[in-house]
Amino acid sequence: MKVFQFIVSLLLISNLAIANDLETIDFIEVSSEKEWKKAFEKAKADNKVVFVDVYTDWCGYCHKLDNEVYTNEQVISYFNENFINIKFDAETQWGYQKAQAYAVDGYPTLLFLTTNEDVYEEIGGFVPSPTLLAYAEEVQSSWVKLPILAAQYERGTTSKGETLEYIDALERRDVEKANEVAATYLKGLNDADYLEIETLWLASRFENYLEAETYMYITAHKDLMVETHGQSEYEDYIKAVYNDNLLLAIKYGDETLLNRIVIELIPEFVPETEQAEAAYITKTLYYGQREDFDNYVIESNAYLNNHVLPEDKKNFMFSQAVEILNNYESKRLYEHAVDLLKQCRRMDKDNFEVASLLVYTYALLGDKKQANESLLLAEDLADSDEKSAIVADLKQVVSSI
């Protein structure tokens, strides 16, 4: 038996050696900021995109990449020729900080970075060799074409298609310049240009404020846009306008813009029967993000009283309380959640979920007396082991107040 185990050990060592001897991409293993900067200095000198593999030792798909993808002859040849290739372990002290800087939240994460260390393209998770090559070829093509298109654009010799290609490439490398070129392009549109789907896509990314000529033209010619591009493309454009303008309204506290979004935009892509709900969601999101919690409560109560059917009120109030507890840390909203849950309890006094959520909400408010009263009710309503376990957890929460 000992001889057999020894032979098996030798075989394992031999296989490991063979695996380690496989030809692979020429990666630079980086473990410090100095090594990172050195790699980007080389990238700038060679005018190459940097390919980065962010991995961990325990990640099975990271090893799968190493063994099945990075050993592919086409992958090796293409990446060694066209990129500066680096790897780093996200669980080292330096690697963790670098992974956080790029908002890496899963492994493997593959990044194509510009020479200025900005993300040019990102791949989350394992991809097979053909897919990785397709990503790489698209990145490389765009990177190589960019200076050529830039020179043509400055000479004024780019076609419309080339200008759109230039804008697309700039988005990854120089957003400010992309905005400048896109604005110039959109100012020169004629009626025929709006019949091209690329115009809708471009306008949705670069010029979708409500005073923009493109927005006013597209919405004024809605029937033509729908006939030409289809209802879904038109609605996708309006949704992009909605999202960007809502972000602007939240950022600057612009309630005039908020009201225009509700009055002008929502009817463009939301069915009439759902517009009141869409307006409610839009306004509560705005007030929640602005931390204007008094107006949040006003909108919540107004929608509850004016638009929710009697048979739907309990479910709405419970879901609204859950929404508050999941997304906000506000005494005013916790108090509103209590009001909603108390109304639920009056409608259904034997509801365990309502009683237990009241315990938790009172605990968040630091009201131990009310939390204990609700805890007794929840305990009486716990008719299963699962519910009893929830009560036990709630007791610990209340005891910590």
Largest sheet: 5 strands, mixed
Give the N-to-C terminal Cα separation: 62 Å
Query: Could you report the average pLDDT, rounded to the nearest whole number?
Result: 91
Question: Which architecture of the largest domain would the CATH scheme give at its second level?
Answer: 3-Layer(aba) Sandwich
Offer a quick outline of the entry.
The chain is of the alpha/beta class.
Overview of this protein structure:
- By secondary structure, the chain is an alpha/beta fold.
- It folds into three domains: 19-127, 3-Layer(aba) Sandwich (Glutaredoxin); 206-307, no CATH class; 312-401, Serine Threonine Protein Phosphatase 5, Tetratricopeptide repeat (Alpha Horseshoe), CATH 1.25.40.
- It has 20 helices and five strands.
- It has helices spanning 2-21, 33-46, 60-69, 73-82, 93-101, 129-155, 160-173, 175-187, 197-206, 213-220, 222-229, 231-252, 255-269, 275-289, 293-307, 313-327, 331-347, 352-365, 368-381, 385-399; strands at 28-29, 49-55, 83-89, 109-113, 119-124.
- Strands 1-3-2-4-5 form a five-stranded mixed sheet, sandwiched between helices.
- The protein is flat and about 70 Å long.
Any key phrases for this structure?
Serine Threonine Protein Phosphatase 5, Tetratricopeptide repeat, about 400 residues, single chain, disordered N terminus, five-stranded mixed β-sheet, alpha/beta
